[in-house]
Amino acid sequence: MARTITVIQAIREAMAEEMRRDPNIFIIGEEVRVGVLGQTVGLVEEFGPERVLDTPIAENAITGVAMGAAMNGLRPVLELMYCDFAMLAMDQICNQLGQWRYITGNQYSIPMTIRTAVGGGFGMAYGHSQSLEAFYMHAPGLFLAVPSTPYDAKGLLKSAIRSEDPVVVFEHKKILLGGVEGEVPEDDFTVPFGEAVVRKKGKDATIVATMLMMHEALKAAEELAQEGIDVEVVDPRTIVPLDKDTIFESVEKTGRLIIAEEGRMRCGVGAEIAAVACGDYFPSLKAPVQRVAAPMIPVPGSRVLENLYLPNKDSIVRAVKRTL
Amino acid sequence: MVFKGPLLANAALDKGTEDGVICLLKMSDPSSQKWFLSGEAFKLPARRPRLTLLQRVHAPCEKNDGFPPLTGSSRCAIIPTDDSVIEKRRRIVPMELPKEKLLQLYRNMLLVRAMEQTHLRLLNEGKMTLMAHLGTGQEAVAIGVTAPLKTEDILFGTHRGVGEFIGKGMHPRDIWMEYLGKKNGPCKGKGGLHLADRKVSIPGLVACLGSDFGMAVGTALASKRRNTGQVTLYYVGEGTCNQGDANPSMCMASLWNLPIVFAISTNLYCGRAEKCTHYPTEDVAPRAAGYGIPYEIVDGQDIEVTYEVAARAVDHARSHEGPYVVEYKTIRMATHHTGDAGKYVKKEDLEKWKDRDPIDLCYQKLRDRGILTSQEDQKLRADAQAEVDEALAEAFSSPDPTVDDLFDDLYSEKGVIA
Q1: If you ran DSSP here, which 8-state letter would residue B199 be given?
Q2: Residue A50 and residue A26: Cα distance in Å, rounded?
Q3: What phi and psi values does residue A4 have, to the nearest 5 degrees?
Q4: A134-177 pLDDT tens trace
Q5: B106 with B365: CB under 8 angstroms?
Q6: Helix A59-71 with B212-226: angle, nearest 10 deg
Q7: Distance (Å, rounded) from C-alpha B322 to C-alpha A50?
Q8: How many CB atoms lie within 10 A of CB B95?
Q9: pLDDT tens-digit profile of B262-313?
Q10: How many other C-beta atoms can be found within 10 angstroms of the C-beta atom of residue B339?
């Protein structure tokens, strides 16, 4: 039976159900007993403070703690509140976490999940609003999940927690707090990594969009439909691994590719997908690839400026039209 | 405050009871040598009085330069935590180790020295490319501190030398295999100097100094949560203790009362710089007091001291008493790494420590106690070198990895890269 729930509920359910299944799973992070954006609210009542473990404010060290715990038999779900703060843990995540299995010759697995929130739109300025998922794509050995719906948020998080490999799950604040709801089965399910989903079928252009931009892309598709432009919207769901088959099956059909993300443009998710398009699928392209992303400036604090900074439906519409 | 003779223990304990101070008390009078540990001499309240304690009691030094032999003095100074007076050097008189144990530690130190000297020779001869961070002069710390550990206890070690890895039980062959990048090494030749060996519970060696501070707290957290009885030893140089993660890691270790020992080898150099350019203070370990962790600062050249203090620290951690910090005063009788000319190294420092070579000191003990003759010593040294050479020959003749190994082991699924 499916019911309609929010993304926050979906994330909370995923953690609670997994923790009931396996006593070695525990939540660790700053203020997780209270739950900063609500994802972990109520879990301490069921699982106790040892399994919903509040830590001092020390992102790099607590990421190390989670890693060490994972090396020694536990399965941590680490919350690094915002991706801006997770930058303090980039040594652990990019130097150590993803590479540990390889450099130890498969002696040590690090089965841990990192959850971190991305996204602007709240007037919180430069250090609370960024979308930095592209940084992690450069690091080997990680899986990177970018859910946009409650179903995917729950299914991807469950896959992450069950994975023997380290996974970073990005949660967009506007999706968490902006009232996005969706149908989620009550029965146990997972969403596998590396399987994109076509959110809307279309024939004129392919929009590959992650997280909040997926929702903006659907709005753009509606608007474009009124002008007789029929776009296909593909949600990768994980950016590592990237489901190139689904994305480029669509591109081969439409011949036009637009990639939309909230992160900045330079070396972003779109840059990677565009490079694959130009390298491996060039003959399918009927027009230059277009990227929709944030400009190379800090996220401004002023709501007026922030609205200009953030990509949205309108910038996606404009990008699609540039390909036609 | 100075107590004398037999009064000392009682007085110190009374003092301890009044102030909630734990006394780690050792009298220098050999007839009454005894450690009065917290649980033994007086009962600790269950709720962590260690947060306010920290007592180190040691016989005073006659001199402040180095560690001269202790004389017949039976005085002990008792320094409360809030006292700003901190002795520059602290000595303890170790228990004599049983003959077999001492010999075993000696053999391990010889093995470490032979490994490292061989590494140096190979570099000079162009037979190996991986540079060495020699731990010459620190063998008693590395071997003593790992000796109380069980196989399942976890070690995070340092770049400096192979001492702690040998001490933890890693086979010389496995070390050579990794140093030579061989397919049959424990890390399949992928780790380089970053040794890991699951057989003896060494989860790995980080490249960025101090990145493993948190990891060590994590392995200890898992031991406690899973009730495995393991202790984690975080062995680190004083240079790395300035890394930011040292602070929250010690904080969490104490906060969660974890079975972890932080052992610091203060070797007077931090990379290519003298310690005094990195530290405003003589000692590193007193930082532990800020986290409510008991600590000791002791000689790192006497294997019986390094072992005894490590054993006490490991016992403390294993018996659910929480973390423990030990600082060993030692010397790096080498430059930062091979190829470093060491212009910053003070000749007078090395001169001063010349007669403090831990292997020589241990040999003197063995000789003085009639355990080892000079001839037998030569045999032991030759055996150590032979063991090293045999391991090396095996590693050299072992196969290199191939292109098939290049993309393996990144993810749990074989051969997958994403």
Answers
A1: G
A2: 8
A3: -95, 120
A4: 999 999 999 999 999 999 999 999 999 999 999 999 999 999 99
A5: no
A6: 50
A7: 16
A8: 15
A9: 999 999 999 999 888 999 988 999 999 899 999 889 999 999 999 999 999 9
A10: 9
Six token digits for residue A146: 């970018």
Helix, coil or strand: residue A240 = strand
Q: Specify the 3-state DSSP secondary structure of B350.
A: helix
With vertex at residue B331, the alpha carbon angle to CA B155 and CA B88, rounded to the nearest 5 degrees, is 100
How far A65 CA lies from chain B's nearest CA (Å)? 4
Residues of A in contact with B188 (CB under 8 A): 105-106
Largest CA distance in chain A: 58
pLDDT for position B353: 86
CA angle B380/B385/B391 to nearest 5° reads: 125
Please name the member of A24, A68, A140 whose beta carbon is closest to the beta carbon of B410.
Answer: A140
Statement: the pTM of the whole predicted model exceeds 0.80: yes
B183-229 residue pLDDT tens: 999 999 999 999 999 999 999 999 999 999 999 999 999 999 999 99
Q: In what order do the strands lie in the sheet with B324-329?
A: B154-156, B232-237, B260-266, B324-329, B295-299
Q: DSSP for B35-55?
A: -B-HHHHSPPPSS-GGGG---
A14: phi then psi, degrees, rounded to nearest 5: -60, -45
User: Distances in Å between the alpha carbon of A289 and those of A200, A272, A322?
Assistant: 20, 12, 9
Phi and psi at A123, nearest 5°, equal 65, 30
One-letter-per-residue 3-state SS of A101-146: HHHCCCCCCCCCEEEEEECCCCCCCCCCCCCCHHHHHCCCCCEEEC
Judge whether B398 is closer than 8 Å to chain A, CB to CB: no
- The conformational region for residue B181 under phi > 0 = left, psi -120 to 50 = alpha, else beta, is left
SS3 state at A269: helix
Residue A50 to chain B, least CA–CA distance (Å): 8
**Cα A22 to Cα A17: distance, rounded to the nearest angstrom:** 9
How much is the pLDDT for B90? Answer: 53
CB-based contacts of A283, cutoff 8 Å, min separation 6: none
Query: Which residues from A are below 8 Å from B186, CB to CB?
Result: 104-105, 107
Classified as helix, coil or strand, A295 is coil
B385: tokens are: 């070198």
- Contact: B226, A163; criterion CB under 8 Å: no
DSSP of B375-386, one letter per residue?
HHHHHHHHHHHH
What order of strands is seen across the sheet that includes strand A205-209?
A: A197-200, A231-235, A205-209, A257-264, A290-294
In angstroms, the CA B299 to CA B94 distance is 10
CA distance B263 to B286: 13
Task: Give start and end residues of each alpha helix (H) in B180-319.
Answer: 212-226, 246-255, 303-318
Residue A72 has its nearest CB partner, among B191, B204, B222, at B222
- Label residue B374 exposed, middle or buried (CB < 10 Å: 0-12, 13-18, 19+): exposed
Listed residue (B132, B145, B42) closest to B358, CA to CA: B145
User: Which among B201, B231, B197 is positioned nearest to B217, based on CA atoms?
Assistant: B231
**CA pair distance A91, A83, nearest whole angstrom:** 14
Q: Is A128 a catalytic residue?
A: yes
User: Looking at residue A299, what DSSP letter applies?
Assistant: P
Strand A75-82's sheet: what is its strand order?
A52-54, A25-29, A75-82, A113-118, A167-172, A143-145, A238-240
